[in-house]
Target: Gfo/Idh/MocA family oxidoreductase
Amino acid sequence: MGNNHMKWFAALPDVEIVALCDVDDNHLNSTQAKLKELQPGSNAALYKDFRRVLDRKDIDAITCATPDHWHAQIAIMAFQAGKDVYGEKPLSFDVREGQQMLKALNRHKRVFQLGTQIHAGDNYHRVVELIRSGAIGNVHTVRLWKTGLPPDLGPAQYQTPPPTLDWDMWQGPAPQSLYTPQRCHFSYRYFLDYSGGVFQDFWSHIADIVWWSVEPKNLKSVSARGEAGDGIADAPRRIDIHYEFENLKLYWTSEPPNVLGAAKRGIGAFFEGDKGTLLCDYGSREITINGETVSDLAEVPKTLPRSPGHQQNFVDAVKSRTQPESNLEYARLMTMPMHLGLISYRLGRKLAWNSKKEKFRKDREANEYLGREYRPKWDLV
Model:
């Protein structure tokens, strides 16, 4: 994903890429070669420690495409160093980190954009306009899903880390583990020490349209059930979650719900209102009212300004000192239920939530999962 960041920002005329950073020399060198293909005259400096990037006074902003467990500390330290941040989803590893990120952003008056690129598309903008217009009435139920199973990673293959990889820094604040290739790079996402599986990988992309269009409020409870991963992976293989908000029920499933049109979509959102329904995925939508299904309603005006592009939106916000569309305050509220769903899955029971205090009600065991202690060497903020 870091290579995608580089490609996107290298294409913007008002951006100069001056540094690349990775704890794996192989990744760093191959990315440098790709940058020179994009910009033959590039003299971007190479770093293995992101702190050296933050030390540079000539850098205005950074992008962060590390595994999930590093997102928060890197962003907070960037804010402290006077840098703005374009950060990959999910926002943070846990609830406490999201709270700390928001405090740091406000304290240092920085700009943040979450890497939910689909947010910038016309389809999501139009879905928001249709739902906010009241065309399908008051939305009382939303169903979200993402199909697809994680790979079977098999048994652990413990070995000495390759000399090109700083395995200790890759793990960073997460619990220390012996090196096995399955825990590193792309497949890290199937381990709860670093991420939350397919569910965590895709939540932000499809839940985004729900928080943008109906703004769920006052979460009361969360109840999750699922299956453990195959092999040494411990993130959920499948997970179904029921969230109860004020005047709204929200469901996440690993299979399409039994509603018209869902089966043909690997990911989607289905809004149920008292006047009709709306089904959407990243690039399409279907509105059904009184038994008639259409893709749009001409009588609903366009009320939202369209995005110049997700990355350009961030650059424009950096220049104007305003917050972009997928800003940190919004992203934190949208991401938090994802964390709570995984906590319910891990504990195997329904949990009651206090939205004002952002804590579980009278449940010490569950509240311990809202944040974790970092390894002392990598507790940097």
